[in-house]
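Q: Predict the assembly, please.
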Amino acid sequence: MFTRPPGPWTRFALVALAVSLTGGAAYGQDTAAKKPMGKSESASPGSAAGEMGQIAGVVTYRADAARPWRYVRYYVQKPKTGELAEALVALRGRSLKQESERPKTVVIDQKLFNFTPEIAAIRVGDSIKFTNSDQSPHNVQTSGEIANFNVNMPADGEHLVKFDRAGGIRLPARVGCVFHSSMRAWIFVFDHPYYAITAADGKFRLENVPPGEYDMELTHPAGSLRWRQKVVVKAGTTTEVNISLSPDQKE
Amino acid sequence: MRSTRASAADSSLETTSVNRRTALRAGISTVAAGLAVLSHPEFVFPDEGAEEEPVPFLNVPRAAPNSLDWETLTEWLTPQDQVFSVQHYGTPEVDAAKFQLEIEGLVERSAKLSLADLKALPAQDVFMTLECSGNGASPGFSGAVYNSRWTGTPLWPLLTKCGVRPSTIEVVFFGHDRKSETLRPGTPRELTVDVPFGRSMSLADVERLQPLVAYARNGEPLEGRNGAPVRLIVPGWYGIANVKWLRRIELRDRRYMGRYMGRDYVTVRGERQGDEVVFVESSVTRMNIKSVIARVTSRSAKEGAALKAYGAVWGDGTPIKTVEVKVDDGPWRPAKLDEKPVEKFSWRFFSIDLGVVPAGKHTLVSRGIDASGRVQPAASDDEIALKKTYWEAYQQWPREIELKS
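A: Predicted assembly structure:
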């Protein structure tokens, strides 16, 4: 891990939406200048100047033949470099809490007897739309602190669930299909926007993070992998956090 | 009273001595030799070459824990993390220290046997592939099969010792699991009763098949979800007959018609009788001949990608004659059955060199044929197409792949 010192041109990040400090990828979210912070954000550490930071990195998994992960083939496409897909990275901390202004809906499809995607991360107030693309009846059910539902899903069926309770990175809603016990999904509900799920290239990026020190955590529920570390975010800077996992991080 | 810990320790000592005692008789030394090769940590079949690359299936969902992961099938004896469990009346917790197996009904002398009593009786190992009869009914339920070395004491001598009365026709096996069942729901004759889980066998089947009162799997005490401390093992019969959390064995002079004998796990199948299709209902019992391609590999050859397929075949104990594999609409070609391990009621691994297969999408399928001439049917054959129920899902399992040019 290292922190990139702020360059002179990064100060323009507030007004230029499409500036990236690491490799030219466009910002996916509005900057703080464009989107005023809510009441709960005003307590964010170091946010007085309104200048935000970023965290970006790559998650990799190093296999160990003596401790094989049977299902690694679903999540690591290139065993030599080990970029890990479907890992969730998030910050933790009460000071981060902020309400979502534009609730969204994420689709989880029941396709070829899998939940697709298997892992979803949303904010309080967002919804998950379950769909069934298989020509077979399915079901979606979960019970626990985050959500409770148990609904049968005919072929081409749909079920919309709005999530009102946050469990963060440690308490997902574990979703299953009562007819097909190997089908599983995890829904993580956050009360802040500082989370990301890695794609096949293992990359993640957290945007517009108020400067400060945070607990950063990773979970890969299918692989039972967990990781955490303190991270310092500086205004106008991208903190690079590359996360190297192995069976040592198995729960 | 013994503690659970002490029982577990005793069990492992017991099964070790059982292994030595039975090794010569059961030919286990050859099994062990095979396993040494099979348990390669990187999930490679024993004769799979290093240059072989796995070819992913297009129509197979991701595997999950507690079910067989076909694409990494390497171990002839299935590791516990891939063992499925199905329960209909929940998972009861049975205190092994207080456990007593009752043998009651039409016997001269009823019996109550603790776990220690059962372990003090002559021990036997039975190798058996146990499959849920619904396994393969959909792509989402295809890993409910596993192979094990079961250790226990044979039931028949135990019954003989108790003295079977001549009027006995049926042996009923009750579990510790129970539930309230409503019969004829929504009718004036609706009836709700609290019942234990039960399955039965005819006395003749018990004598012929020699079920095992089992307390260990692969040398370890049974896991709670797999029926601890004691379950029934019926060689060659589907999972439902292998009653878990065994509590009471009752000999009766009437057929037992509990839910899982007479209402559920009843196969309804149309049979052609002349020009007529007659539907016949039968309780799920004997396993059917079944084979599955576990994985396909490719290696570079001069003309393109050369494929090899690996899989497993099993049935009700009738010797396996052959397994054949077909690519698309090509001819059935005989696969090579592994010479070992071979046990009567366990699956047998097979492999086949399919040669160069052109780029594009292909369907591979296998079929097992046993010594009695039974051929594993395709889904479109009468045997499966006229079967109107979920259970006994032994149709051929086509695997779809795509080879890049």
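The two ends of chain B are 68 Å apart (CA to CA). Chain B touches chain A through 23 residues (CB under 8 Å).
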